[in-house]
Amino acid sequence: MAINDWPEDERPRERLLSFGPQALSDAELLAIFLRTGMRGLSAVDLARGMLGHFGSLARLLSCSLAEFSAQPGMGPAKYAQLMAARELARRALAEEMKTEDVLGSPDAVRQYLRLTIGRRDVEVFLGVFLSARHQVIAVEELFQGTLTEARIYPREIARRCLTHNAAALIVAHNHPAGSVEPSAEDRAMTASLKQALALVDVRLLDHFVVTGSQTASFAERGWL
User: Fold this and answer.
1) How far is CA 197 from the centre of its chain?
2) Sheet holding 124-130, edge to edge
3) Do 131 and 173 sit in the same domain of this protein?
4) For residue 101, how many other CB atoms are within 10 A of its CB?
5) CB 22 within 8 A of CB 39
6) What is residue 212's three-state secondary structure?
7) pLDDT for 13-68, tens place per residue?
8) Strands 168-174 and 203-210
């Protein structure tokens, strides 16, 4: 049955307008994005099938064009819309971080990191340079590596902090293999980086390990 034939109070768009987007399931929100279904399948049916195929909304939002287009009724136009929506969300989170104390909005930082580097297919090391009030001065991709590692140079990171006149720093890197658990090498590198930053009077506030759906915080584990 087409969504237009559903009772009005059960249609995703009408429910969103009445109760807000938080009242809808992932499938219902995705159905509003898809707008229409196909013969024998409503937009909600298509959305459920796509979420079932990809396993999560995060995985869907980071899929390739080829993966997306392999789904029934999907193609380049819908993929471009999906990527535009994803980038709008990332930019909105970046704006939120720049106008607030990042320690007061930790969820925005985590979501921004997941959207920015969580699904990259190589290891990327990123720095969030902060003022004395913990507001974002700049975000830079500092190093890239192979599938399993990125070579990190604490002196270069300290130099970038001085360039930005940063008082504090948050760093993050992704694990392309999918495990969010920090390695022994991650911990050793973080200790070295903290020492190097202390020499230039910059505080290392946190180090996040990121995947597309999870983050691990060194500060929360008491490792800083």
Assistant:
1) 26
2) 136-144, 124-130, 168-174, 203-210, 215-217
3) yes
4) 13
5) no
6) coil
7) 888 888 898 898 999 999 888 888 788 788 888 899 999 999 888 888 888 899 99
8) parallel
The CATH number linked to 66 is: 1.10.150
179 located within any domain: yes
Q: The CATH number of the domain where 133 resides is what?
A: 3.40.140.10
On the 0-12 / 13-18 / 19+ scale of CB atoms within 10 A, 103 is: middle
Q: How far is the C-alpha of 54 from the C-alpha of 140, rounded, in Å?
A: 30
Domain that holds residue 165: 101-217
Name the 3-class secondary structure at 210: strand
The verdict on 56 and 123 lying in the same domain is: no
Contacting residues for 181 by C-beta, under 8 A, at least 6 apart:
209, 216
In this prediction, residues 145-156 reach a mean pLDDT of 77
Same domain, 172 and 204: yes
Q: Identify whether 192 is part of a domain.
A: yes
Does residue 211 share a domain with residue 112? yes
From residue 12, give the alpha-carbon distance in Å to each of 9, 34, 79, 81: 8, 12, 21, 19
| Domain count along the chain | 2
**Residue 132 forms part of a structural domain:** yes
Distance CA 124, CA 104 (A): 25
Dihedral pair phi/psi, residue 74, rounded to 5°: -105, 155
